[in-house]
Amino acid sequence: MTVFLALLLKMIPLYIFIFLGYIAGKFLHVKKESIAPILIYIIAPVIVFNGVVTTTISPTSMSLPILFFCISVCMCLLFYGISKLFWHDSTRNISAFTAGTGNVGYFGLPVAMMLFNNEQIGLMILAMLGMILYENSLGFFITARGSYSVRDSVHKLLKLPAIYAFFVGLIINLNHVPLGQIYADNIVNIKGAYTILGMMLIGISIANIKAFKPDIKFIGMAFLAKFITWPLLVLLVIIANNLWFHVYSNSIQHVMILVSIVPLAVNTVAFATELKAQPEKAAFAVLFSTLFALVYIPLITTVFF
Questions:
Q1: 139 in helix, strand or coil?
Q2: From the centroid of its chain, how far is CA 16?
Q3: How far apart are CA 165 and CA 298, in angstroms?
Q4: What is the per-residue pLDDT across 133-161, written as a single tens digit (0 to 9) for each?
Q5: How far apart (Å, rounded) are the C-alpha atoms in residues 117 and 6?
Q6: So where are the chain's domains?
Q7: Who's near 76: CB < 8 A, 6+ residues apart?
Q8: Is 2-304 in CATH node 2.60.40?
């Protein structure tokens, strides 16, 4: 219980950023359409680049982004099929996107800093890279298809800088190119902006909604994907590892569990806004999942850690 309460209290500042975002949207008239492109096209690529260049590359560590990319893709395709039974508009597309990812960056990383050592935080970033690559490839394409043709969707996909940032970072890492102290000093500011703007985007999105009409069916589908299916899939991977493969240590398994239980990705709102794919439904789902995570994450981490 002590661990549960300690983690819960440490998570509260993240929710303060959501509240500040709501204030900014409601009273300062800040629009989510202004914040979302900044996160997608400027800040996220820098975070991806930094995650790759600062992490020790090994077969085990590099398997994490591949693993989580594969899980994300499978979840997206699975719920794209399931969602066809309920929706025939762009709701189906944003539901599939939502199922494939989670708020590892804006939410998971700050929580990881409360729980883990530096090595585990680096592994968390690598796992996050797998999700970001999914978001900026199949996830973005699926979401775009809700409002755009295949040709336009591919064109928008190729304009995303995060994919290119990943490969540039990998080349620099493998060639041991030093980036210098100036880079190290300033990347801290980018990380802070990534978390703060990401969490504030939830509040801004809620403030921009004219009528409080959450889609219960959409929220239920999102919760099924994020808080039930995701943890079960990761637990199956961990069981298989412990029985047969013995690739991942206990510390890595803790990282995997945390990645699987974070709330819905804020990028759901960012992408839905950018691609005009039900951003209000996305905002409500992200908000409710983030509120639920305030209790869910301390509970699960207390049980498994």
A1: helix
A2: 19
A3: 33
A4: 888 788 888 887 766 666 766 676 677 78
A5: 17
A6: 2-304
A7: 96, 97, 99, 100, 134, 138, 139, 142
A8: no
